[in-house]
Amino acid sequence: MNNFYAQHKSVQPWLNMPEGAEKGTENRQSKEDRAKLDGLYECVLCACCSTSCPSYWWNADKYLGPAVLLQAYRWIADSRDSTTKERLAFLNDAYKVYRCHTIMNCAQACPKHLNPGKAIQQIKSHLAHA
């Protein structure tokens, strides 16, 4: 699990505020923007999806896997985050995202009924349009 948690940390699973933003003040978002996070923030990092993924079995040292990519997209999709471009630049390599071949074992294995494959496709879409 050390590799899994190191990969999780590498996607900076926290809100990055813009320079000069007031700390300690509430950072609101619209109901619509908040709704975009449904199906993303509920992940409990059990790694069932990652352990069910053949691409992760063979490339766990390079491919981030479904759970970590779901978490990465959770912050990319957050309207309050100021580092979307940097997050996408970090993910834009041949292994971190593109080892996903949409087998979708991840969605079937998730005990919370989340869909990491959908989040990965959203990341790929963002990368294609960046």
Structure characterization notes:
With 130 residues, this protein is an all-alpha fold. The protein is built from 8 helices and no strands. Helix 5 (65-76) packs across helix 8 (116-128). The mean pLDDT is 95.
Helix and strand topology:
Blueprint: H1 2-10, H2 31-35, H3 48-51, H4 54-59, H5 65-76, H6 84-91, H7 105-109, H8 116-128
In short:
The protein is mainly α and 130 residues long.
Beta strands, count? 0
Compute the gyration radius: what is it?
15 Å
Percent of residues in beta strands: under 5%
The H-and-E topology, N to C, reads as: HHHHHHHH
Helix/strand structural class: mainly alpha
- Between the first and last Cα atoms, what is the distance in angstroms? 32 Å
Overall average residue pLDDT: 95
Low-pLDDT parts are: none
Shape: globular
Main pleated-sheet profile:
none
The number of distinct helices, counting runs of at least 4 residues, comes to 8
What portion of residues is helical?
A: 40-55%
Give descriptors for this structure.
130 residues, mainly alpha, 8 helices, 48% helix, globular
